[in-house]
Write a structure and sequence with these properties.
alpha+beta, 4 helices, 6 strands
């Protein structure tokens, strides 16, 4: 039997409300370490002179570089998304996947302003009952206020 929706009007109003930014300084060594760890010898990730010859300020981060995990220099702390209280009563949670949309290369020396917001809420019926999905969006802007990356993370509660 299907129960009523767990998504309230207050929760729906929280979609799109952006947090205050957390601020990160992009350093060279975490970029180099990640490139080495994944076995990518592209000189854009290792050799600053090579990157400058191609028009960059410094080395660039490889695709998939997750700034909030890789940058040791945090200028302002990561803040949770502003928004409504989510429903309780779900016993299990799992990662529903992450998507990355890249706009511009992240370069060593960039200062990234990272905000998060609730992107979407929805429900589905599953074999074990109601499932509740939240999609959180994390937006990375550089010091020029240009969006360099959007990460969308889905969480499933059931």
């Amino acid at each position: 039997m299907t129960q009523g929706s767990v998504i309230t009007e207050e929760m729906r109003k929280g979609i799109g409300i952006e947090s205050e930014p957390s601020i990160y300084l992009v350093e060279k060594e975490p970029i180099r370490r990640l490139a080495a760890a994944i076995g990518d010898n592209n000189p854009l990730f290792h050799d600053e002179e090579y990157a400058k010859k191609l028009g960059y300020r410094s080395i660039i981060a490889p695709p998939g570089f997750q700034p909030t995990y890789c940058f040791p220099v945090k200028i302002a702390p990561m803040r949770a998304a502003a928004g409504p209280r989510m429903p309780t009563g779900f016993a299990r949670f799992m990662n529903g996947g992450d998507e990355y949309e890249f706009f511009k290369p992240i370069q060593a020396g960039d200062v990234l302003y990272v905000t998060s917001r609730l992107g979407d809420l929805y429900e589905r019926e599953g074999r074990m009952g109601k499932m509740f999905f939240t999609v959180n969006e994390t937006v990375f802007r550089n010091q020029n206020k240009e969006i360099v990356l959007i990460q969308r993370s889905t969480t499933i509660a059931y």
